[in-house]
Amino acid sequence: MRFVVDNQLPPRLSKFLEEAGHDSVHVAMVGMHTADDRALWAWALREDRILVSKDEDLLFLANRFGDKGRLIWVRLGNCRRDALVEAFARSLPAIVDAISEGQRVVEIA
């Protein structure tokens, strides 16, 4: 799968996703770190990437009628990088299954 990790999340998460065998970039790596939500959403859609974010505004974009974008919505609150990566490590098989089955929004809480 192809992911793009948003600004509120550390580049380490993108590295973890790469190490798990996925194509992943952090917004800072592709010059999208200053983009507004709509621009980032449109870019992720064009690039066929699943957006990983804590931003609730992106949830609203993901739920628009007819939209095709995909979102991993992180609802873990403030936590250390290691705890975040551990949560993704536990959840990644379920995330992959859900996205593969056509689910467009997957929540990690």
Could you explain the architecture of this structure?
It is a single chain. This protein has 109 residues and is α/β, with parallel strands linked by helices. The longest helix is centred in the last third of the chain and has 20 residues, at 81-100. The protein has a 5-stranded parallel sheet, with helices on both faces. It has one domain (2-108): Rossmann fold (3-Layer(aba) Sandwich). The protein has 4 helices and 5 strands, in the order E-H-E-H-E-H-E-H-E. The model has no long low-confidence stretch (mean pLDDT 94). It is globular, with a radius of gyration of 13 Å. The relative contact order is 0.19.
| Termini separation | 21 Å
Structural class determined from secondary elements: alpha/beta
- The count of helical stretches stands at 4
| Poorly predicted residue ranges | none
| Main CATH class | Alpha Beta
CATH architecture: 3-Layer(aba) Sandwich
Q: Roughly what fraction of the amino acids lie in strands? A: 15-25%
What order do the SSEs take from the amino end to the carboxyl end, as H and E? Answer: EHEHEHEHE
The domain tally reads: 1
Enumerate the strands of the largest sheet in spatial order, edge to edge or round the barrel.
2-1-3-4-5
Question: What is the general shape?
Answer: globular
Q: For the CA atoms, what is the radius of gyration?
A: 13 Å
Mean model confidence by pLDDT:
94
Major sheet: size, sense and barrel closure? 5 strands, parallel
Number of strands: 5
Helix content: 40-55%
What name does CATH use for the topology?
Answer: Rossmann fold
